[in-house]
Amino acid sequence: MFAVENGLQGDPRLQAISDAIRVIPHFPKTGIMFQDITTLLLDPVAFKHVVDIFVDRYKHMNISLVAGVEARGFIFGSPIALAIGAKFVPLRKPGKLPGRVISEEYELEYGSDRLEMSVEAVKSHERAIVIDDLVATGGTLSASILLLERGGAEVVECACVVGLPIFKGQCRLKGKPLYVLVEPNQLDELTF
């Protein structure tokens, strides 16, 4: 569900967030219109809007765990976790976590990858949300859900700053709700 469908229609914060994201064409490969959040992070007002909207959504949902997908999910997930009084669990690329890990492979729109999570990170029946910057195919979020559920958590929802309006990955998300702030920017809408 897009934020505009959930009571934020006309909220100027959403436009500020969208305006702060730049598009890099053909990155990391031809045909990909990369939604670069670096410019969003350089705008403290827009960055705060992202965190505030997610905090408002999750602060009364008894969330005890915020999982952030490497690496941009860390940027948004950590302040959200602190603000709602939850722990933060990083979901990392292979070989980045010490100790025992569990892993899950997934497909990207331009290849495949794998996520890992520390086996000690999750306790049974913890209520979790997964945070990432963008959802395109749902592969990364699906792998995140599987990792958290294998650890015993109940995944309540996935949340992304940017999401494709034609996202068809709901079935890949095992029926978990998806909350998205803005649609991707297009080059023809930008001025340089």
TrEMBL record:
Domain Phosphoribosyltransferase: 46-172
GO cellular component: cytosol
Protein name: adenine phosphoribosyltransferase
Protein keywords: Cytoplasm, Glycosyltransferase, Purine salvage, Transferase
The enzyme's E.C. designation: 2.4.2.7
InterPro entries the UniProt entry points to: Ade_phspho_trans, Adenine_PRTase, PRTase-like, PRTase_dom
GO molecular function: adenine phosphoribosyltransferase activity
Region forming the signal peptide: none
Subcellular location: Cytoplasm
UniProt record similarity statement: Belongs to the purine/pyrimidine phosphoribosyltransferase family.
